[in-house]
Design goal:
- The chain is an alpha/beta fold.
- The chain has 3 domains: about 170 residues, Rossmann fold; about 160 residues, Rossmann fold (3-Layer(aba) Sandwich); about 160 residues, Rossmann fold.
- The chain is about 35% helix and about 15% strand.
- The strands form 3 sheets. A 6-stranded parallel beta sheet has the order 2-1-3-4-6-5, with helices on both faces.
- Strand 3, helix 4 and strand 4 form a beta-alpha-beta unit.
- Helix 1 crosses helix 2, helix 3 packs across helix 15 and helix 13 packs parallel to helix 19.
- It is globular, with a radius of gyration of 25 Å.
């Protein structure tokens, strides 16, 4: 009979071999004692790339970034007690945004539960409704069947990716001793269990009915955050061309930059939708949405006032209709839906409809002032990954990014839209992409200073826009309160140069756009990690 330490290790080897067979390639480990069997098996599993992150909250957002970039679930490991509780903000973000994660939480065995044992809490159901599934396989048992653990891993991977991607929790208790009594050979990787998700095709009748409903009428396509590949971008662009309608596309949609047809694209809508009369004069009779609901208030309000046909194409089983205007929910892959609607051959919009939007775009482009967003994007090379922080940063990117033919891959944490963990998420993207440029505000950076530790050794450029606190509140009703400065704007006294140097990052300061225009290319040429502090009024 195996001793407990060896049994724990063999059990951990088996479940990790199942994850590798299921296509998992990355593991994020926060050091701890009770998680030792899994951590040791991970570090000795040649099929896994292991990342170490001391702070469990940063570790979880780092894993989120890996998953955002790769669209595959990484493993996230922590010891028992409050350690996995620190994952909760990232778990909520992953659940809301549809990002796959595998949460491996080590735990005390049943006999230590509920009796005051150290570092022991009730971890079953810790993440509530924010996980797609929760598994409690129990303590390792002598004579266990490795095939059970292989299939548990495959099952968890499928649950994390289909039908609605998100986190899956596996709560794994271990009895002491935790280390094997002797050296163990590596575990064999089992044959992959082939899981084939369905291709969601639209109903031909529903497509015909929708085609007749919108044919010949003025309407528009709206693209929010989505994981769009080149084929999907081409398909949406082709559909807009056939319908002769504009595309109002946010940066996180992936539609603004790239080599696809951008002739129907509108990206300056925040400028002209700010005028109520202009917005009222452009009332569409139908709206066709792809991806998440829009970020900015002008576009949200515009969609709220649309006509009777408000359609959303979404293959995921979720309800995305905060304006309560949805008339058609089309469960289909966007690529297949676009192809089917083009085949149905609806009549294009009336003559002059799209041109009205094009004229507004041209006028807004001519009036656009140079901004730090434009300077940043102009300096980037083709095929660059950009993480955009929440609060004011994402809204400035939405207003000022423009559009272009070079490929820029935008990422953000818009599931729950918190400012927590933004830097850590960006570093997770860098771990898979090999580089990242992150644009965040000063409070967002301060909120995740631990994420700077994960930048070490990475080609990462972090641009911190320091506008002395919560600049987003300057645009909200709270700005009129006498307590505004104290309770909302909250200017801080952090020294970003000292913060950067403490974590081994290069530091540059730019006090104006001209200095920023020189500092950013220099940092890009040198390679990361660098923190550029852009001081703005």
């Amino acid at each position: 009979m195996l001793d407990n330490g060896t049994l724990n290790y063999c059990w951990s080897q088996a479940i990790l071999a199942g994850f590798v067979a299921a296509g998992v390639s990355d593991a994020v480990i926060s050091p701890g004692s009770r998680s030792t069997p899994l951590a040791l098996a991970m570090l000795r599993q040649t099929g896994l790339r292991c990342h170490i992150a001391i702070d469990e909250r940063s570790a979880a957002f780092f894993a989120l970034g890996i998953a955002k970039s790769s669209r595959r679930p990484p493993l996230l490991l922590a010891t028992s007690g409050t350690a996995p509780a620190n994952w909760l903000p990232a778990v909520i973000e992953a659940s809301q945004a549809g990002v796959p994660l595998i949460l491996l939480a080590a735990d005390r065995p049943p006999e230590l539960q509920g009796c005051g044992a150290n570092q022991t809490i009730d971890q079953i159901g810790l993440f509530g409704p924010h996980v797609r599934a929760c598994h409690a396989p129990g303590t390792p048992e002598p004579g266990f069947d490795p095939g059970y653990l292989h299939r548990l891993a495959a099952r968890a991977c499928e649950q994390a990716q289909w039908p609605l991607p998100g986190p899956v929790h596996i709560n794994q208790p271990f009895r002491e001793p935790l280390l094997p009594s002797s050296a163990m050979p590596p575990a064999d990787i089992p044959e992959m269990i082939r899981v084939s998700p369905p291709a969601l095709l639209p109903s031909p009748k529903d497509v015909r009915d929708f085609s007749q409903r919108i044919g010949g009428r003025p309407g528009l396509i709206v693209c929010g955050e989505m994981a769009a590949n080149a084929e999907t971008r081409d398909a949406i662009a082709a559909l807009a061309s056939n319908l002769d309608c504009p595309i109002l596309a946010e940066p996180l949609s992936g539609m603004r930059f790239g080599r696809h047809d951008r002739s129907n694209l509108c990206v300056r809508y925040n400028s002209w939708l700010a005028d109520p009369d202009t917005a009222a004069g452009l009332a569409p009779e139908w709206v066709l949405r792809f991806g998440a609901f829009p970020v900015t208030r002008h576009l949200q309000n515009y969609l709220t006032g649309t006509g009777s046909t408000h359609a959303l194409v979404d293959p995921w089983p979720r309800w995305s209709d905060p304006s309560n205007r949805l008339s058609h929910l089309l469960r289909s892959d966007p690529l297949h839906f676009c192809a089917a609607l083009i085949t149905a051959d609806p009549l294009p919009a009336p003559n002059g409809w799209r041109q009205r939007f094009a004229d507004l775009e041209s006028g807004a482009e001519a009036r656009a002032k140079e901004s730090h967003v434009a300077v940043l994007l102009a300096a980037l090379a083709d095929d660059t990954a950009v993480f955009v922080g929440n609060s004011l940063a994402i809204r400035q990117m939405d207003s000022d990014s423009g559009s272009g033919s070079k490929s820029i891959h935008f990422h953000g944490n818009r599931g729950a839209s918190g400012i927590d963990g933004n830097l850590s998420t960006a570093m997770g993207i860098a771990a898979t992409r090999g580089h990242i440029v992150a644009l965040v505000g000063d409070l967002t950076c301060q909120h995740d200073l631990g994420g700077l530790a994960l930048a070490q050794g990475r080609n990462a450029i972090i641009v911190v826009v320091n506008n002395a606190g919560g600049g987003i509140f300057d645009h909200l009703p709270q700005r009129n309160l006498p307590e505004f400065e104290l309770g909302w704007r909250t200017p801080q006294q952090i020294d970003f140069e000292h913060a950067a140097l403490s974590f081994g990052l290069g530091y540059r300061r730019a006090d104006c756009l001209d200095t920023f225009r020189d500092s950013l290319p220099a940092a890009l040429r040198a390679g990361g990690p660098h923190l550029i502090e852009l001081k703005l009024p």
